[in-house]
Amino acid sequence: MKQLLKHTWMAPLACGLGIMASPLAAQDKTEEGADSTIVEIKPSDNLSKLNGFRGVSFGTPVGEFKSLKLSEDRGALKLYVDDNDKQLVGPVLLDEIVYYFFNDKFIAVALHTSDGNDTSNALRILEGAYGPGTPLEGENTYLWKGKTESIRTSVDTEGQAEIFISNNALYKEYLDWEEKAVKEAIEELKK
Prior knowledge:
With 191 residues, this protein is of the alpha+beta class. The chain has helices at residues 10-17, 116-130, 168-190, and strands at 3-5, 39-41, 69-74, 77-81, 88-89, 92-93, 96-102, 105-113, 134-136, 141-145, 149-155, 161-167. The protein has one domain. It is 24% helix and 31% strand. Strand 10 (141-145) and strand 11 form a beta hairpin.
């Protein structure tokens, strides 16, 4: 089934307030009833072809990245940024791109927007590429889950978003490690 999408400045506000059932609403007329520009969105099931970000596959060792700068060191989990990174995805200006490494392997990337219009366009791009996401945890979080990769978006009430793209197996390894580390910390505090 096709979805029709009209670019509108109200989409970020509506997403942030949880008014729409999907990040994007099908519309074909403006408030005055005049015809509007409509973009046809076709859902796609090719998320599993994603396998990384900007041509770098998940699982790539941190040493193969040339200009990353350590942002956070949490032991086995390290977060990096790249000051030379292109902060644009289509028309979307990103506030920040954070690369996640577990045991020195690339497992995920987080894209952050700080503007409602950029958030709206990012959601349009995701829906255009992968179809509508599944709502989670309320109206402002959506998930696209493929066989090997997943994308989760979270939009706050001001229209800022985090788009988290991860490899399912590698991210599960991290979550298993994190759970074990929490249990060990609990036991250590009991001593």
